[in-house]
Structure formats: structure tokens, C-alpha cells
Helix-turn-helix transcriptional regulator
Amino acid sequence: MPIIVNLDVMLARRKMSLSTLAAAVNITLANLSILKSGKAKAIRFSTLAAICQVLECQPADLLEHRPDPVDLRPGTE
């Protein structure tokens, strides 16, 4: 079940750099880059809430679920 991180989209919409967001949220640029690249395995709700507050968005603006086509086959429930 792939989760797509659209952080780059929201940063572009807000005309904000990754380093500016990192400073505003008090998270390292390295950790924010991992999240942006989609390589993060988890995110704390407090971090997600802080990002949403700074970017003035909702979690659904940042995270998207795209079902794996294999998961959609009949009989794989």
C-alpha cells in the first residue's frame, strides 16, 4: 500500500523552500528531505501537524494513498 508524499507540491504552492520549512517546523533538513523523497517509513502526528500549520494545509494535501494494483485483484483480501 504505497503512500505518496506530496510535500514538494505544497512547498511549490506556498513558494517555500525545504530549508525554510525545516527551520519553521524545527526538524532537520535531512529528515525533511527523507520525508519529501517518500523514503520515510513513519511520521509523528506532531510533526505532521506542525508541517500542516506552517503550510496552512490538511494532512490529505500532503499524503495520498495509491493502492497497489496487486492489492486490487479478486481473492487477495
